[in-house]
Amino acid sequence: MEAARQYNVHEAKTHFSRILEQVATGEEVVISKAGEPVAKVVPLRPKVKRTGRGSLRGKIHIPDDFDELPDDIAGAFGMR
Fold first, then answer.
1. What is residue 61's DSSP assignment?
2. Fewest Cβ atoms closer than 10 Å to its Cβ: which of 11, 18, 42, 47?
3. Which letter does DSSP use for residue 57 in this model?
4. Among candidates 4, 3, 15, 1, which has minimal Cα distance to 40?
5. According to the model, what pLDDT value does residue 49 have?
6. Helix (H, G, I), strand (E, B) or coil at 9
C-alpha cells in the first residue's frame, strides 16, 4: 500500500480543493503541523444501495429446528 501524501497546514489551506479531489479518488492525506502529523483525511465509505425489503426472499433458508437447543446447552442455561 502506498504511503499517504503529507501536507503542512499552509499547503493544506492553499490546496484544500485539490486535497479533497485526491481523497475522493480513494487516497489518504496526512496534515502536519511543525513536521508532526496531526490529522488524516480519509475517504468516506460509499453508501450501500439497498434494493428494498424482500430482496433476499427465497435465497435464505432457516431450518425448522433453528430455535431448538441441544440438551446440554439448554441445561447449562437452566432451560431444562
1. -
2. 47
3. T
4. 4
5. 76
6. helix
The hierarchical CATH code for the domain 5-41 is 3.40.1620.10
Which uninterrupted H or E stretch holds 41?
strand 36-41
**Distance (Å, rounded) from C-alpha 7 to C-alpha 9?**
7
Neighbouring C-beta atoms of residue 12, cutoff 10 Å:
19
C-beta of residue 23 within 8 angstroms of C-beta of residue 41: yes
Torsion sign, CA atoms 46, 47, 51, 56: positive
CB contact at 8 A, 20 and 8: no
- Whether pTM > 0.70 for this model: the answer is no
Per-residue pLDDT tens listing for the chain (80 residues): 567 899 999 999 999 999 999 999 999 999 999 999 999 999 998 777 777 788 788 888 899 988 888 899 989 998 87
- Pick the closest to residue 40 from 6, 17, 2, 1 (CA basis): 6
20 SS3 class: helix
